Amino acid sequence: MKWPEAKRWLKEHAWIQPPASAAPLGPGVYHYQRLQSEWPTRFHLRVDPDGGGLLLANAAEAAYLSPVGVEMVHQVLEDTPDETILDGLRQRYQGASSAEMAADLAGIHAMVADLSEPGDNYPVTNLTDHPAGRGRVLAAPFRADVVQGDPETIRDLLNRLWEVGIPHTTFLANPARPPAELVRLVEAAEDLGMIAGLRALASWLSPDVIREAALAGLDHLDVVWVAEDASTHEAVTAPGDWEAAGAAFAQCHDLELAPVAEVPLFAGNASAIRDLMAALARRSVTNLSFYALACPNDDTTAQAAGALPARGVVSVAVAITEAAEEGQTRYLWAPPVRFDPRRSLADHVRAGPRAVGDVSVRVEADGSVFPARGPRQCTGNLLTQTWEEIWNHECFARYRGRLEQPERCPDCPDLPLCRADCPKDPRAWSDDTMLEGGGPR
């Protein structure tokens, strides 16, 4: 069973439902490493309170699992003998014959073997693969974007994130702090078994830091990329950053580290987005992360500063979706960022999005937690509050509601960007404009 078929099977195939007496696998993240020939494969099995879950393989592919899918994958990764697995399934589940159970277990084995083959290693976890017509009850997001800070404090934060079931963290480099510190953060994530990423302007990082972070276990490097033209790129990044970004992409390939281009979308580059994606493909960079620096249609001040008006966000998203399909590019969307006229376009680009994806949160270096969308409202602090207090904040109650009952607008194309909220509606953007100076970055 090839991975696309296996992925679709795991999402849609719920052949039996557990009786009330069934004891599901407890919520949390289960970490495994398997050897296929000489190739090691890392698996993360995330289990949610409803018994369903998510399987990540080599931090590269994500599949939503039904409760029975969770149990079978868990047992296979535990190397439990097939007959023992089937005996347990027959005792705990109803509605399928022994032959059906055996066939489905064989499909799980084929899927795990297929996933164990070497390949790309950039984690794609967004609402794109949400099972149609089936809501999810999540114990926590799938990813936390953590701002660089004191390594001991960040280690405590990572322990908390792992405890609540978040398997993936991306460190947001802070140019005011020592770049070498990032290596220690990656080591801390690797010690726990977490998927680890790093986001930065390339000029903030030396080749030595990138190499040491890769050796410490870094899974992907997200580098800001604005345009194939150096002057356009450096007008909103930093002198020398264009060349540094190209060198970082090349170094990633040498280190077998997944390179990711983080592309801010604004008036100055949105019309050339197809050319930008083609140029990145020529550099063998096919993992992209997008976010729009957007403003309401009537905000002429922000538009004059370079922001993309709301009416233009969907058309750019259509162009990206079409180009990605043609070029076999993988991409994620971060919620649009509302442009703050009190800050320059360069300030917005260097800061980046609040968090990437609708299954992500932002964690500041002091432990403050923020949702990916909406006003910059702190939902609690990981160092001083329980996860239950943070996750039950009204901001996350709305967030979970969108995940459990996804709605689609009939007026626009079926776009991944629209999966949780309308990209044309400023209320659905990440918005720091109400804070003095646009809020801390």
How would you characterize this protein structure?
The chain is of the alpha/beta class and 441 residues long. The chain contains 15 helices and 18 strands. α7 runs parallel beside α9. It is globular and about 65 Å long. The relative contact order is 0.10. The N terminus and C terminus are likely disordered.
Quick take:
This protein is 37% helix and 20% strand.
Q: How large, in whole angstroms, is the Cα Rg? A: 22 Å
Structural class: alpha/beta
Mean pLDDT metric: 83
**Biggest beta sheet attributes:** 12 strands, mixed
Report the span from N to C terminus.
46 Å
Helix count, DSSP H or I runs of 4 or more residues: 15
Task: Give the overall shape, derived from the CA principal axes.
Answer: globular
Report the count of strand segments: 18
What fraction, in percent, of the residue positions are helical?
Answer: 25-40%
Unreliable spans are 1-16, 19-23, 121-135, 436-441
What percentage of amino acids are in beta strands?
15-25%
What are the key terms here?
disordered C terminus, 4-stranded antiparallel β-sheet, single chain, 441 residues, 15 helices, 12-stranded mixed β-sheet, disordered N terminus, alpha/beta, 20% strand
